[in-house]
Specification:
By secondary structure, the protein is α/β, with parallel strands linked by helices. The protein is built from eight helices and five strands.
Length: 200
């Protein structure tokens, strides 16, 4: 075991077993973080430690059970970063991210070296996800954002702009000045209504 000072605390949420204890010992030796194992059914204690990470074993807490499990956390741990490990593939990762606010995803086939690197990143308040997963999330949020500004009543953005100008009390002339560039307006002295030109 290393003689270096520990630099954070990691709560490992998994079933207690010789394999999970070996994993915890490896993480302790290579991250220099204190590691505590808690079963998914146990009460997770609050911690005064500033750098705390909760690692959830997706083999022992299903994606469907994650929101309920997270709600049972003490109030003092509500903003503690969560990460899931033993994630099977990208679809499984997206399911997990859809139901809880995870800051990190570790796939089942991830090397232990990468795992340790990710722990340090998460303890430093960074995200830890694969490039492919981040790219999918960026595309999803871009689509979401473009849809968020599309009104549900079927109005175009131009119509919404006019409504917003009306709502602040703009007159027709003020709206025209705001919306129409000079090059689109009729030349001074010309008549825009053809019937007026014909004196009808």
């Amino acid at each position: 075991m290393s003689q270096e000072k520990t630099i954070g605390l990691v709560y490992l949420i998994t079933e207690q077993s010789p394999q999970s204890q070996l994993f915890a010992d490896y993480l302790l030796d290579h991250t220099h973080c204190s590691i505590r194992i808690y079963s998914p059914d146990s009460t997770i204690p609050s911690s005064p430690v500033e750098q705390l990470l909760i690692l959830i074993d997706s083999d022992h807490i299903s994606v469907e059970a994650l929101p309920d499990w997270q709600e049972k956390l003490p109030e003092t741990l509500a903003k503690t970063p969560l990460a899931a490990f033993n994630i099977r593939d990208m679809d499984h990762a997206l399911e997990a991210l859809a139901c809880t606010q995870l800051k990190g995803i570790f796939y089942r086939n991830e090397s232990l070296e990468v795992f340790c690197k990710g722990i340090h990143a998460l303890l430093n308040d960074e995200l830890w996800m694969s490039r492919d997963l981040m790219a999918k999330l960026v595309l999803f949020y871009r689509k979401y954002q473009s849809n968020a500004f599309r009104p549900t009543c079927g109005l175009t953005s131009r119509e919404m702009e006019i409504i917003s100008l009306l709502s602040i009390g703009s007159s027709n002339h003020q709206i025209a000045d705001k919306l129409c560039p000079e090059s689109v307006r009729p030349a001074p002295g010309s008549t825009s209504n053809p019937l007026t030109c014909m004196a009808i």
